[in-house]
Amino acid sequence: MHQRHQAKTDASANAEKVPQENQPFTADDLTRAWDAYIETVGGRVNLKHTMINCRPVLKGDDTFEIVVHNPGQREVLLQNNAAILQSLRGQLKNGRVRFTVRIDETNEKRLAYTSKEKYDLLLEVNPALARLKEEFNLTFD
């Protein structure tokens, strides 16, 4: 039992002695590593499309941000956080790489509940709807 404990202690000591890589990287390096990871995701369609459509933006020496369009995209990135980081850290030779995910509020879908809200949203898409409403003397319930 003493030998097994000693082996664990030696392994822990050796792990502490291995310096963590901290190579600086550029936005282009990050993009190349991101694209390389996309090629490995296989049949995980949601992850692949999210990574293709939501590109990383370097925010600091070791930190980047991904701006997504909806909560589902945020969730798929966070669920795959460990695998993404492991790949990027290896490719970039930087063990400190981190990322944040932010939902772009301007793209987040607005929900219309009342008839007036629904009309206003449709009016943004098709302004000719106002003429139709007036011509047929339509009202909201």
Task: Characterise this structure.
This is DNA polymerase III subunit gamma/tau. This protein has 7 helices and 3 strands. Helix 2 crosses helix 5. With 141 residues, the protein is mainly alpha-helical. Helices cover 54% and strands 11% of the residues. The relative contact order is 0.12. The protein has 2 domains: 84 residues, DnaA, N-terminal domain (GMP Synthetase, Chain A, domain 3, 2-Layer Sandwich), CATH 3.30.300.180; 32 residues, no CATH class. The termini are far apart. A hairpin with a 4-residue loop joins strand 1 and strand 2. About 11% of the residues have low confidence. The longest helix is centred in the N-terminal third of the chain and has 16 residues. Strands 1-2-3 form a 3-stranded mixed beta sheet.
